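The instructor's notes for this session suggest beginning with a concrete chain rather than abstract definitions. Hand out the sequence below and ask the class to guess, before any prediction is shown, which regions might be ordered.
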Amino acid sequence: MGKEFTVHAPFDGTPIKTLETIDWPEVDRRLATAHALYRNRDAWIPAPKRIQILHKAAAIMRERSEAMALSAAREGGKPLMDSRVELARAIDGVENCIEVLRSEQGRVVPMNVNAASAGRYAFTRREPIGVVVAVSAFNHPLNLVVHQVAPALAAGCPVLVKPAAATPLSCIAFLDILYEAGLPLDWCQLALTANSGIATQMVGDPRVAFFSFIGSARIGWMLRSKLAPGARCALEHGGVAPVILAADADLDDALPRIAKGGFYHAGQVCVSVQRVFADASVARSVAERLGQLADKMVVGDPTDAKTEVGPLINHDEVKRVDEWVKEAVEAGAKLVAGGKVLSPSTYAPTVLLDPPDTARVSREEVFGPVVCVYSTKNIDDGIARANSVAASFQAAVFTRSIETALRAYARLNGSAVMVNDHTAFRVDWMPFAGLSVSGHGVGGIPATMHEMSIEKMMVLRSNELL
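After discussion, reveal the predicted structure:
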């Protein structure tokens, strides 16, 4: 086996639980077990049984939701009020897998429509792609694992899952619930690898058919390059999410939404509001009012139901965010709110006005509680500046004009554009995809199940079909 490590609460460093990692021989054994399950088609779990397991798992999660939300808040730092929402989403995600299983089984392929296809009938059904390896991130310690593991199991794939080292406990709790609901242990195996080299070897193993990754672009693209020939993957990285704020926007409606989208989970969200391109006539007012909202937010212990902004995942991240903010201010940005370390684990919700476009807060994902407001000449100026970075994920526009909304939708880089809502809006059955350096493939429960399965066709010839 590997070595022991302790999970600590990011807010105050309290030890929560000590776990043991596994070394390569144990990873190899678990991959062999998963691969053998997939190769033995008689051992596949039939769809009715998969549905039964998922139903029971969702029911158990619902019964334990408050305890699970508190545990997730403690290990990951997301405030309890938001961790409760994550729990509800995770339950809904498990149930969404059942809905997809019941509604998307395959399709009929047209035949008997010309001489070549005469006397034939063709249809498809979906079959599991093979062994899935899922590597997850810390910022949604339960819901991200649900998004990777539940669709794989629903599709019929054996899974090895590696949660983030900082937040493995929610993943372990979910796996235990799946076992309690009737899933055989070997169909979903934990892979707390001893080091990154072993994890890379696991991902690149030829027995892996599908690799699901949520995390940094640097690591994700590197791991993709290690995949065995034929292996497929889905990568979900970060963005530098832009909001276009037109002069006619309803600021009373827009600003609380932008504040929530920017400071939710201390900005540690891949589509968190980071850049607000506001018409010059309202930009200063927008920044000042956002600053007032930021100053009122309760920062502190994530397990306290009143806390709105919790800690960053570790002390080094607090130092990094502070460094980026100070760099922007020194380069000419106006500090409207925040801009200070509150404790070794927490950073004040921060609003900057007009940082240079060359500053890191303008070009790279902050992944911290920082929102930048930029004065723009007009909508097209804002869109051009929003599109000036390589990252491309979700974007937003606030306006009362349908023409402005449609113009922004047509011209903004991104896989989704929200109108009069913040960039972090998501429901788990919608497609969710980073473009360019921000990702590969499509997330969301139905899309993930589709990517983790193959469409297998039967062509039947019979003279009775003439």
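Then share the key points. Residues 132 and 210 are 5 Å apart (CA to CA). The chain is about 40% helix and 20% strand.
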